[in-house]
Design a protein that fits this description.
Strand content: under 5%
């Protein structure tokens, strides 16, 4: 009888599913596309093409910001 009660309570109170790190289910396409890009980069090995592109984008963004600040000072 005790075991039956424990099973009944356990069936009624279920744990929410655990998230699986970066591989959890996402409904946002942007996040999903970033995961795919990073996954491809993980398996790419030493080429590092994705990280090189991101570094160039960051450098270009910094240049744009510094240029716009200089324009405001003038």
């Amino acid at each position: 009888m005790k075991n039956y009660f424990i099973k009944l309570v356990n069936n009624l109170i279920k744990e929410p599913p655990k998230l699986l790190g970066r591989w959890k289910l996402d409904s946002c396409n942007v996040v999903l596309n970033n995961k795919v890009d990073l996954s491809n980069e993980d398996h790419c090995g030493p080429c590092g093409q994705y990280s090189m592109q991101k570094n160039e984008e960051m450098i270009n963004d910094k240049k744009k910001i510094s240029f716009s600040k200089k324009q405001k000072d003038i």
